[in-house]
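Quick illustration, no need to memorize.
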Amino acid sequence: MSLFSPSELFRLHTMTQVESRLSNQGFCRVAGVDEAGRGPLAGPVVAAACILLNGVLFQNLNDSKKLSPKIRDVLFGEITTSSNVIYAIGVIDVEVIDQVNILQATLLAMQMAVKNLKEKADYLLIDGNKAPHFDVPSMTIIKGDSYSLSIAAASILAKVTRDRIMSELDEKWPMYGFKKHKGYGTAEHLKAIDQYGPSLHHRLSFAPIRNSLMAKKGDNP
């Protein structure tokens, strides 16, 4: 007996069309690749690569941004413990982000995630419109986490991993509220930066942090 309703099964199968076409062309290990954390003012950028084997499906699997934190956590557990999934994570910290810029850091995280796969992918589906160089064929898909099941799985792995990193940072730096806003530039976060200055985990190359530092220099000649 199927665990999925007909509508959910139809939705999930619709999101496997790209992977199915590639499978018909002989690609056996298609990896979806996605990232989390390009926009925040603090914390790393995280990418994930995920290969779904043997037609495995997960209830509610979708673009991570469309899911509640609770459902993301459940799916993270299901995906990472399934014998039909090969996955890996890439994390690039703030020092590298400030050195090379956030786009290049994101591409590095993607390369790291793909390199860390315990079985090499033979085709890559990349969320967005930019991809780093890989030694296997790849395709970029704008809003791919809504159209490709393997990219959606990668989006959840990247998002949950990064959220957990930010929650850990919150324990050491509670004054910034990282657990709540995950490093994004909320009014609460900007107020904390003005009050305490940036931490070691803030991206000094990002305009709000840079402007805050310049303002403090102006106040203290």
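The chain has one domain: 6-219.
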